[in-house]
Structures are given as C-alpha cells and as structure tokens.
Amino acid sequence: AQSVSQHNHHVILSEAASLELGCNYSYGGTVNLFWYVQYPGQHLQLLLKYFSGDPLVKGIKGFEAEFIKSKFSFNLRKPSVQWSDTAEYFCAVKGYNTDKLIFGTGTRLQVFP
Amino acid sequence: GAVVSQHPSWVICKSGTSVKIECRSLDFQATTMFWYRQFPKQSLMLMATSNEGSKATYEQGVEKDKFLINHASLTLSTLTVTSAHPEDSSFYICSAFGPSVQETQYFGPGTRLLVL
C-alpha cells in the first residue's frame, strides 16, 4: 500500500540546534516528494520539493532535504533552527502518474529560545 | 504567485443546515482542486478530487451525497456540506493544482466548521 511515514511525532529543540526530520515512503514507481510546513494558525506552505535531478534540494528559510532512492527516504534538515521554525511539518509523496498527494502524519516541532 | 483562498474562514451553523465553502485559485488556473479534512493534531485526509467541468472523485468512505463538490471554472471549486451534523465539525482545506504551478499543490487557509 502507498504510505508515508514520519517517525518523529514531536521534536523539541533549543534555538541553534540542528534539525533532521525523517520521512520514508512506500510507493511503486517514480515519485515526486514534498515537505510542507504549517505554522500555528496558518495554512500549509510549500517548503521544498523534489521532482528529479540533484537529490539534495534546497527550500525556503534555510531548509533542505535529501532524496535517497535506495532508502525510500526524503529527510528534512536545517543546520540551525530558530524559534520561528516552531510548526507542524508534513512530508508528502505524489506518484508520477497521479495528482494525489499522500501525506505523512506530521511532525510537531517546538523550538525554545 | 500561486495563491489559493477559501471563504469563509470559519462558520458556525445549526445541525441540519447546509454550508457552502468556496475555494479559489487567485493567480493561476486550477485544472484540479482537492478537498481535505484535518482533525486536531492529525494529518490531512483527502476527501475528494475535482476536475474542472467534470464530476468529483470521492475517496473511499466519503459520502458524496453529504459532501457535494462543484468545480465550475478553472479558478473556483465549492464544497457543500449538506444537512450538517456535529460530527461534520472539522477543518476543511482545499488545494489547487495546475500545469502553470509545476505540478505542485498549493493550499488554501482552511475553513473551520462548527456544527451545533
């Protein structure tokens, strides 16, 4: 079955700490991968996406993610988090021949000053 | 660019009434729009996919007669919750997708529905 797993449900960090959020997917065939962020009280915003090419993609606000095909993973990273990064982060996968997104359950990130 | 709006942002209604939620793509043509429900502290659950000018495709377990979707133009889709009941209270989110936005879904701000 097609699915997306986000292993970390709740992550608590201090400012300036490094961040890595895990995302693994189960999907047959070529995929497009996304990370979305939902700040408190706001709508989902696209952080970054991978369609093809360089497996290391850079997004907004200093985030990056690496697609490792052999591990079916697309982990999100940021070298130094800020208090303003406190939000819910969702990984999503889309098959090449479909428009539907399959979302992970989300990771709640809390950053303390 | 790639802005999606929803209206209303929140609505409170009595049980048994119908509520219409609008989703608009403001600066691109949305060949496809999606409707999701999001429960507190949970992920998004896809309810249905609507393509402009054709009937919506509902996910398994979603009542098509309860949640009426119309995608009348390339910039507007509506979700009508018919005969709403308290269990329909939720956060409804739409997203829009089109060739000009590089096959990426852009999300609206959501509509919070409370049925009393």
Estimate the global geometry of chain B from the Cα principal axes: globular
Q: Which strand-content bin applies to the residues of chain A?
A: over 45%
Average predicted confidence as pLDDT of chain B: 91
Q: Separation of termini of chain B?
A: 37 Å
Low-confidence stretches of chain B: none
Describe this structure in words.
The complex is a heterodimer of chains A (113) and B (116). Chain A is an all-beta fold and 113 residues long. Chain A contains no helices and twelve strands. In chain A, 0% of the residues lie in helices and 54% in strands. Helices cover 0% and strands 52% of the residues of chain B. Chain B has no helices and eleven strands. In chain B, strand 5 and strand 6 form a beta hairpin. The mean pLDDT of chain B is 91.
Task: List its traits.
heterodimer; A: 113 residues; 6-stranded mixed beta sheet; 12 strands; 0% helix; globular; B: 116 residues; mainly beta; 52% strand
